[in-house]
Amino acid sequence: MVQVNQTPASAPSIPSHSFDSEALRVFVVEVFLKLGCHATNAETAAEVLLASDLRGIESHGVARLAVYEKWLVNGLAPPNPEVEIVRETGSTATVDGGGGLGIMVAPVANRITLDKADKNGSSWVAVRNSNHFGIAGFYVSQAVQRDMVGWAMSNATAQVTPARSKDSLFGTNPFAVGIPAGKYPPFIADMATSVVAYGKIEIARRRQTKMPFGWALDQQGNPTDDPNEVGKSGRPYSMLPLGSDEEHGIHKGYCLAAMVDILSGVLGNAAWGPFCPHFMMPENSAQPPFGKGLGHLLGAMRIDAFDEVADFKQRMDLWVETVKQATPIDPELPVMIPGEPEFFAERQRRQHGIPLLQPVVELLQGVATRQQVEFPAPLS
Predict the structure, then answer these.
(1) Residue 262 belongs to domain spanning
(2) Residue range 300-316, pLDDT digits in tens
(3) Does one domain contain both 255 and 169?
(4) 208: burial class by Cβ within 10 Å (0-12, 13-18, 19+)?
(5) What pTM was estimated for this model as a whole?
């Protein structure tokens, strides 16, 4: 079935096709197997990517497969990284990802985090020598499934300017918090510390649309609505922190980005700031003078370390109901709880398929051809 995305009237309509989620998962697994990954790593990587597409976060899903392919084909990351604990206490650890892809490294580190929290009530694990780990919400969702509060954050390629600068020193530096509820979907806050994730700018390019002013700067440091100006001619990206300018609180996004960079990078001796490897253009990544690879920080807290789980979930349900009763500005746009849109998107996409824009389909067909893997047919 071919669908057309809703775009501004001035922009061309870009068709999309819906694909069965299981068929896409099998395709991604087969690609990673062809790239030399063991079955466990291939399955893990596919799970992380499909979780993003199912939740409607198309910027971090299978659309990124060609970039991961580039890392592996060019020998810039091992297909089967050796993930090891290099320092630990009962409730903490530093994990070295062996230079592997974050979608293979971070799930291992997250299991270590959750297992430590199981034994000790809470835990924190710093990860270094890793790479782009997909959506942060994936990791906190695993904590929620074990009746824990989950935390996840990561630094990233320098794309974002500090306040009062046009130089890119920070990544989009996302963080997420997951909190279980009872009869309602869990609270999942998953956000970049930039105004928008870089993937949203990629989507604007694919759709051939303008982006809102306040997302990024041009080469002269002026606001731009042209997504093609971001990263033009290979220059550093100039995205803005949350707040966009001083009048709208840019210092808050700047502080959050710096916090994530320090806790994800400096704490565990990963690269930080402008020294982080360039995920989208790995050929431009040089050995950083400080730290190893990208860094993450993962945390978990057992609910029953604080109170009975059933009682907590009952209170969370009351909290959700209270917030949901807030009067909406537009009656057709009800107040939603963080994570709720993704919950409904996943339910819809598991039933009706995952929509992929035509440029993404063509990108994946290219991967399929190069790796000699059959690309699934769209749903009829």
Answers:
(1) 81-193+246-339
(2) 999 999 999 999 999 99
(3) yes
(4) middle
(5) 0.91
